[in-house]
Amino acid sequence: MTVTAKRRVNPEAAKKEGKVVIYGTVVPKIMGLIQKGFEAKYGIKIEYWRADATKVIDRALTEWRAGRPNFDVVTGVRGGLALLRRENVFAKYIPPASESFPAKYKEKDALVTPWRVTPVGVLYNTELVKAGDAPRSFDDLLQAKWQGKFAMPDPSRHSSTAQLLWNMEKLKGERWLDFVKALAKQKPHLVDSFAPIPTTIIRGEAPLGITYVQYVAQQKGPIGYAPLEKYLADPSDLGLSAKAANPNAGKIFLEYMCSAEGQKLVAGAGEFVLAPGIYPAIQEAEKVAANLVFMDNPTVEQLKKLQSDFRQIFFGR
Questions:
Q1: 262-298 pLDDT, tens per residue?
Q2: 304 shares a domain with 164
Q3: CA–CA distances in Å: residue 36 to residues 33, 42, 261, 288
Q4: Which residue in 183, 282, 280, 268 sits closest to 224, CA to CA?
Q5: For residue range 241-251, what is the model confidence (pLDDT) as tens digits?
Q6: I want to staple 198 with a disulfide (CB 3.0 to 4.6 A). Which of 95, 215, 218, 260 is the partner?
Q7: Closest Cα partner for 202 from 148, 141, 133, 124?
Q8: What is the dihedral of CA 169, 175, 178, 183, to 10 degrees?
Q9: 194 in the same domain as 153
Q10: Range of the domain at 163
């Protein structure tokens, strides 16, 4: 890691820039808390555009390739940001506040900084499903009683779900594709991304759903999570644009997100953060954090083929 990558920033230079423009996948409720704390501390405005992982990466790439990037910072799961890294979108910068984070989460090239981890599990409606009947593994979703009764993102369109299914090899070995085909035969209720699944569960449109565990603490209603033996997970990273219009404000934002103040704020909203000893108010959160299996990231070519294959498997076309 170079000295430049770790260099501290003068907050006064950031204040003169006045704002930081962020593209990301963080839900508005969480970003609202971050925005309130950050703006109060530094007097720098946050302009935030949110979408699912696929749309965030598509917009950032389109602007970058056109030579008109409008973002200072991008945040999203590592698999998605890897596509931006390959096109040299990010500048080398690691906020000093992140130095206490576990080394296994960090990237050696200093182009992105992890700030949370997003375990994927099975959530369920606690009024429609008894705790003892909830799945204990992804394999349990293949039981006849769950056919047509669980929701998940469409893997032919949602890159994070394509990545998730591809990484089932880590749990199931060579039979991972057999699992995917069996999952498709269960006729799941397919949605655009992980974000709408909790609402689908709470409304009873589907009693189960594959989505992020942290949503349990971020949604009001009869919703819980099934305690699995292992959770596939991807770190969420922050990347500073190499052509940021507000580079100092961008660096200050990265520092805030990794600081004890920022990490406690985010964990208090239900997120699994990386600062040691800080956990969300989710039952057995430490056990979830101890049973994470980190996902690999497909290349652009692999992702295109995966989504094409999943379109055939789930839709027959």
A1: 999 999 999 999 999 999 999 999 999 999 999 998 8
A2: yes
A3: 5, 10, 12, 29
A4: 282
A5: 999 999 999 99
A6: 215
A7: 124
A8: -50
A9: yes
A10: 119-232+293-315
